[in-house]
Specification:
The chain is mainly α and 403 residues long. It has 2 domains: 193 residues, MFS general substrate transporter like domains (Growth Hormone, Chain: A); 190 residues, MFS general substrate transporter like domains (Growth Hormone, Chain: A, Up-down Bundle). The chain has 16 helices and no strands. Helix 11 runs antiparallel to helix 14 and helix 13 runs antiparallel to helix 14.
Amino acid sequence: MWTKEYKTLLAESSVSIFGDAFFYICFVAYLSSFPKADVLISIWTVINQLPNFIRIFSGVYADKINNKYRAIMVCNIVRFVCFLSVAGLILLNKDNLIYFIIFIVFLSEIVGTVARKTILPFFKYSVPKNELQVAQGINNGSAQAIQIIGAGIGSSLIGFISLFYISLLNALTFAIAWFIFINIKKRLVQIQAAKIIVQTNKSINFFKKIPQAYMYLKSNYKRFLVVHMSLLNGVSNAFVAMFLVLLTQNKSLEIINYQFTAASIYISFMLGNVLGSVALVRKFKNMPIIFLLKLCEFLSILLLLVVLLSQTIIVIIILFFYGVLGGIVSAKIFAEFILNVPTKLVSSFMGLVETISLSLAPILTFIFNSLAIIYHGNTSIISLLILSTITLLYTILFSGKYA
């Protein structure tokens, strides 16, 4: 599985993710130093979520690109220039430039979204088909781990190094990614020429391509998987965000203090996700996805019942195993989709799937956070418990069709 192409693609992705992770946490701290910090951070939080809702369009655009290798190289150059520009604007030290800085960072993230979709066809052919699940798990897990490390390093640099130097360091990561990619140029160009279908109709528009990608979601089984992946993302994100609100209302949920408890909740889920994605996908390679989905949904119900009993240590333990199962399930579903979709549509299709699966998380988070704030904390827990129970019953009732 560990071909030179796969290792290089993984290294290129890891370097970019690391740079973004440590930059973004420092950027929020930088925004907090302005007079209208709450407004700026709110704007940035909203803007930072927007790429999740346009992944389908970035996927369609990526499929239209004929020379995908060159496009990825150009994306790295553009992002390098973006963060050099950010460094330059910060050096000018003028408050009225902050909105322009936010726009440039947002532009870089849009370019990054296109790059991540453009690289998918190369990834598909860089590992044997029977190892794609494992490779996808390693991709997901390493991304999570690198985000944790990058955010940790970034948070430790706050107060010691200015955002000017942080921006330069992030620009450097894209330059490194560019040089890493050159290392396998010949092989990727060969893959592109032999296996990636060139789009002969360059004028095809987004609204023709989206229905083509949706055609591969017409099977009830694929729709079933996408809906459940959306619910997994939505429930896990909503739970973590809701629990952080509940901690402020109910001191009995705290272990030592608020900060320690919040960090434990976040880290337990992330570590579980990394372990499941990186180390355990191979062991569960032949286990049916639907069985694993049932386990996830059962754990989500158990998790919420334990919260009602104010047993935070048990919550942390269950959340770890929920993260493990979530990492395994996500890798298996994405690998199955990539394998069974034509290469010429793989970026569009995965953009569609990711848009659907990620869009539910902020919606559920908003709903259950609002319930936790407006009403008593137990209202939000019970509401999420009802949703999780309905999801499990739906899976049990209809999974027989797809066994």
